[in-house]
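Example 3.
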Amino acid sequence: MLTKRIIACLDVRDGRVVKGVQFRNHVDMGDILELSERYADEGVDELVFYDITASSDGRVVDKSWVSQIARRINIPFCVAGGIRTIADAKAILNYGADKISVNSPALERPEFISELAATFGTQCVVAGIDSRREGDKLEVYQYTGDEAKTIKSKRDTVSWVREVTRLGAGEIVLNCMNNDGVRQGYDIDQLAAVRAAVTVPVIASGGAGDYVHFADLFRQTDIDGALAASVFHSGKIPIPKLKAYLNSKSIEVRV
Amino acid sequence: MIAIIDSGGANIASVQFALERLGAESVLTKDVKIIQSAEKVLLPGVGTAPVAMQNLAEYGLIDCIRGLTQPVMGICLGMQLLFAASPEGNTPLLGIFDADCETFTPAQGRSVPHMGWNRLSKLQGHPLLAGVDEGAHVYFVHSYFAPVTAQTIAATNYGDDFTAIVAENNFMGCQFHPEKSGLVGGQILRNFLEMPS
């Protein structure tokens, strides 16, 4: 049986891992290579590196660390941040990343997703989506890496998820902005709605604060994986303990 | 020297890095002579079956690969290329194994692509599996699969059983990515490297 994936997200700024609360007040969390190796050794299933400044600055992620990570770790990882051209994506994949994730550039030009999928295969192409619950609506946000530049896109989350999948995204990472960094649990209803809308894997992001939040997510939805950052970086939830806990709840994970 | 066939797909570097971690030297190449004289040959593949086959044809590698006598291992799409045909663009493949690849159908609890860590089961006695336990987890990313055949030495279940590892004579293939499959994947690559050439 395919296991539920536990994914550690490393937000990267200027070559360091940082984490903010609801995308603000970034605090230094450590060195990229050290943290990546620690996670791989502890049994995390996958890593995601988000250069959170890249999209809003019009920069491409610094590629040298991608290659260093690929040399050192033996688990899959995805790179996100400011990937705007086929050449950007190709360079990152050639450096050894398994997947590239696009967010704001896909909102600017949705056909970019199809171009990536046609060139590299859908399995390499992840659509990252920042979604905010506003009343009874789910709205997609853009340029969330920089608070000053963050804007609401003109898209609602469920129809955008359907569109990126139709265009060729092989996976969705849905970041529920209201929950991000506040550690009160994943947005189960929103994630279930997105899960039901598409057939590609959907990864939950935003809200993990305690062990039970992961169990709730996997029991109450068909979500494929759970992404978290600060609870892993701070050591509050060690990966081996989380996996042992999920196993004890009959949720199949890799141990 | 290990030859890694450059079939034009992306992220071939990962395979080379994994060999580096095991202390093996390798060269990325599409040169027929280098491939023919290599101790071992790896055929990775990310991308689509029609593009990969088109590239192999363009580089004059189709007959070269079919004629190899040293240990050859296909990885992911590279494993599928060893089979007869792919539904992806109705593409004829290398035909070393005579079964045709199939497509996963999405279902409740079965997202497609099949992406993540799944178990190896029904392990057969084979040097590639030395030190690998029944139920070990490895990392998959694919939407097409090869069915279980007489040459299957490990299967995986995703709704149905499919070929996780295939082997006959000098030709082998892994549907998962051993280079991304932690210690288990490293063991399988090491077993491949230790085979007599």
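Chain A has a mean pLDDT of 90. DSSP finds eleven helices and twelve strands in chain A.
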